[in-house]
Amino acid sequence: MIKVTTASLNALRESDLPLAVFAFEDGGIAGAASLTPKVRKAVLDKAKSEHFKGTVSDCVTVFASDGARERRFIVVGLGKRKGFSPEALRRAAGALSQFARKRYAVVAVLPNGEAQALAEGLLLASYRFEEYKKPEEGVVFAEARLVIEAAAQRAKLEAAVNRAALYAEAVCLTRDLVNRGPSDKRPESLGAVAKALAEGHVTVKLIDAKEAEKLGMGSYLSVARGSDVPPCFVHLVYKPKGAKRKIGLVGKGITFDSGGLSLKPPQSMEDMKMDMAGAALVLGVFKVIERLKIKAEVH
């Protein structure tokens, strides 16, 4: 996964990094307050000459002056203004991440208000599951630098980037666990992943079959009898000081579902390694919950 950082406007002006801006299908360039109207118009006109339409995920590169020097601009489509949402920006940022993947090592980006959605899109689109294969060749994109256009924006922008990084870390752990082969994520191995998350205000308890029987978990144990692998029930607790409310998260953790009363047909079994995605999501949350400083007790 790439890094998303922040950089000052002066640092941008002293560099020759490609600069990404976003534009609407039915309007001009969004945000980019540090660019004069003349520069924004020139960039957009050149993009349109390269058949840029501004539809979601449309990307083109053009050379134009930023007011101080000639540089490469990457113009990314946001779709129509009406109905625009953080999710549209997240998807556009993902398209930028994919576009830069084998082209540029570092890209500067002018944020468009929703900095957290922007950073999430950049990060999540750079995810790859490579536990079972060699890393893809030719990938050079390593960092996106969100430009701080005004000093008053710094704290808010940096907080948004940090929060996005935590969200992406949680999502990517979830994706890794879901993508992993079923023979590599038996109940005890998921239990081990959970145990590794115990720190600070997070505690983890693993309940084996013997203890589950004492607790009267008959329904759970009846499902577990369908496998020759012993079950592992995981209870994670995040309990910060002063928490005044409780939240419960329940994630299904069947590591491979071969069927109920009858076996599933082969085509229906192919993605059953994903039947533990609910549990993977909970583990993803607990991976970052201590750093998110949630003010609630979470089970």
Please describe what this structure looks like.
- This protein is 37% helix and 18% strand.
- It is an alpha/beta fold.
- It has 2 domains: 3-168, Leucine Aminopeptidase, subunit E, domain 1 (3-Layer(aba) Sandwich), CATH 3.40.220; 182-298, 3-Layer(aba) Sandwich (Aminopeptidase), CATH 3.40.630.
- Strands 1, 2, 3, 4, 5, 6 and 7 form a 7-stranded mixed sheet that branches.
- It starts with a strand and ends with a strand.
- 35% of the residues are buried.
Rounded mean pLDDT score: 93
CATH topology of the largest domain: Leucine Aminopeptidase, subunit E, domain 1
- Quickly count the helices: 10
CATH class of the largest domain: Alpha Beta
Large-scale geometry: elongated
SS-based class: alpha/beta
Number of strands: 11
Named at the architecture level, the CATH assignment of the largest domain is 3-Layer(aba) Sandwich
CATH homology group of the largest domain: Leucine Aminopeptidase, subunit E, domain 1
Low-confidence stretches: none
Distance between the termini: 29 Å
Radius of gyration: 24 Å
Portion in beta strands: 15-25%
Number of domains: 2
